[in-house]
Amino acid sequence: MISSDIQQLLDWAVAEAGVPGIVAEVRDDGETWFGAAGVADIETGARRQPGEYIHAGSSGKAFTAATMLRLEAEGRLSLEDTVEKWLPGVMNVNGYDGDKVTIRHLLGNTAGLFSTGLAPETTNNYATRANLERHRFDVWTTSDLLKLGLSQPPIGEPGDRFKYANGGYYLAGAIIEKVTGNSYADAVERLVIRPLGLTHTYVRPAKDHGYPDPHPQAYSSMFLKDGSDPASLTPENWVELMEDPATPPLNVTQFNTSLFWSAGNVVSTTGDLIRFIDAMATGSLFPQAQHRAMWTTVSTEGSGWIPHTHYGLGVFELDKAVTGGRTLRGMAGAFWGTATMAVSTPSGDRAVVVHTNTDWRDFDLAFKIVGAVFDVSIVA
Question: 166-180 vs 142-149: helix axis angle to the nearest 10?
């Protein structure tokens, strides 16, 4: 393990890339290394530390996919079940057809749903600093989220191509509740969190907007420039419309994240996330059929999502063209004030989790650290 190289990158992230605080936890052949740089709190100067509770962002999609796969292994549902089977009539709006969309489509982001993050209901509420301040404690119900996820017409036919869409995961969460008769959070707890012994991981309750201690403050610079029109946002142009990275960040630690629900509302620690990505990468949580389904991937090229990736069910594999032919499996998530990436080998012999207490503009920083851990060169 080249811990000095990783630490240098963490220090660089704070000194040169404008990150308030960053941590990386690496497991290598049973040994664990933890590195940190910068601060957990800009005002007090408190340092980042092991065991902090962090928001995993869209890495929570992997928890939803894992829950679905466990239910399939129990014989409760099939990935080929349609949305119509479990949620009759819910997709009968704006040109969608629930008889054509399967659970596999939802989890693989191939259902033809539009990019929910670009809906007017979210961009108008959260795209500027002033609007986020007004809406930071809004609570989104399941009904609200299903309506949001289907509020714009399809961007294609089910199965045609990859398009990252929280709406598919909202539907998946609703199906989990229908199948189990319990809340989404209870299902994830029973089927994923407890079996893996993730003692510092939970699905955030809908009305919660804080974290247990210890935790870093969350700082966001992910806002549109003054005068930008939220309606002009696309997956391709959003970076160029954002504020200058040098703009002082906004503290968004106290923030209701029910908007993300089954699309990414898991709170965890770097240690628990290492254990989780190891289980996903190696298949220790599933029978072989479900493990194979999770890692049957499609290209994300041209979608505006993370470069050099192929998407499975809530997870991704890095393109072997940038890994020297090696298979590296991971998950990632970023939104206001938090960004996480976790990557593991299929054998689980080496894994890394990186977290910053601010939102990424691109994935170059995470790729630098992942590259150092696995001795590959990845350019975003």
Answer: 140
